[in-house]
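User: Please fill in residues for this 294-position structure.
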């Protein structure tokens, strides 16, 4: 009989259930397993044992290797599914305590986004598979020389690179959160500026060209000339600005009551369109089939 003791202060019922489920495969291979629960202070230890040589006549060494592989596989899954979130919460709480509770929740979700990759399908993402492979290898290495493991201690002392990766994900998430907050504050400032100034025309038609160039027309399909902009172009001559920035700045200067995009075969850059919609709210509309579109 071979025995491995697994200690944890959290998720012990889940560990026990997952081990019982996964180790049933050993029974189909002719090996017998048993799990006993032993409380010890704030920890609970699960004594997992396996006996027999299986249907294939495993050697004692092979039976033990199979047993340890199943245990390592279960623990690696649970570390990523449960402890990863707990550790991440602790990192954010300790390092970014000056954010409010709602802000820390947003940072937590951003960090998970980094850690889990960007694959929204059912299959595991490449970052998830890579971390699973690293943790599984560390567990098998540890269990190769020791028959007792305390999961929280193992994570702290044997998965330092993994913890570092969680910290880096939290740092990136904070950077994203701050950039997003600055963007929203800037948009609110532009909205305020647009709302308080008088509109210079009721309607601006924005005609997009396939090469990214745009032209502005009023409600009677007349080109909007520089008189509307009052030196706006002159102020930008020495500035580094692209077509999208120029379009947004021109619309803010004119502050129309309504904006209609005519794209035809062109497309408005998604980020630019989203920014204009955020600034002008319900004033923005789309057209794809009128004379200006053609």
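Assistant: Residues filled in for all 294 positions:
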């Amino acid at each position: 009989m071979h025995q491995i003791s697994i200690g944890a202060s959290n998720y012990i019922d889940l560990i026990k259930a997952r081990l019982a489920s996964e180790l049933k495969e050993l029974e189909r291979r002719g090996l017998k397993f048993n799990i006993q629960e032993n409380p010890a202070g704030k920890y609970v230890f699960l004594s997992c044992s396996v006996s027999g040589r299986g249907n294939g006549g495993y050697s004692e060494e092979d039976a033990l290797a199979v047993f340890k592989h199943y245990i390592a596989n279960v623990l690696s899954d649970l570390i990523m599914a449960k402890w990863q979130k707990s550790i991440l919460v602790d990192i954010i709480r300790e390092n970014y305590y000056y954010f409010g509770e709602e802000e820390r929740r947003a940072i937590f979700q951003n960090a998970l986004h980094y850690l889990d990759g960007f694959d929204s399908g059912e299959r595991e993402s490449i970052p998830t598979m890579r971390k699973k492979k690293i943790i599984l290898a560390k567990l098998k290495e540890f269990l190769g020389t020791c028959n007792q493991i305390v999961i929280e201690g193992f994570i702290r002392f044997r998965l330092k690179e993994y913890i570092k990766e969680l910290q880096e994900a939290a740092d990136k998430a904070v950077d994203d959160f701050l950039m997003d907050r600055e963007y929203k504050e800037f948009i609110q400032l532009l909205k305020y500026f647009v709302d308080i100034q008088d509109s210079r025309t009721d309607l601006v038609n924005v005609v997009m060209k396939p090469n990214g160039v745009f032209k502005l027309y009023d409600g009677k399909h007349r080109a909007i000339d520089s008189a509307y902009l009052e030196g706006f172009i002159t102020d930008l001559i020495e500035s580094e600005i692209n077509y999208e920035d120029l379009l947004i700045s021109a619309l803010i200067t004119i502050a129309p009551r309504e904006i209609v995009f005519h794209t035809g075969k062109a497309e408005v850059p998604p980020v630019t369109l989203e920014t204009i919609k955020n600034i002008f709210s319900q004033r923005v509309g789309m057209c794809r089939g009128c004379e200006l579109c053609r």
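For context: The first helix runs from residue 12 to 28.
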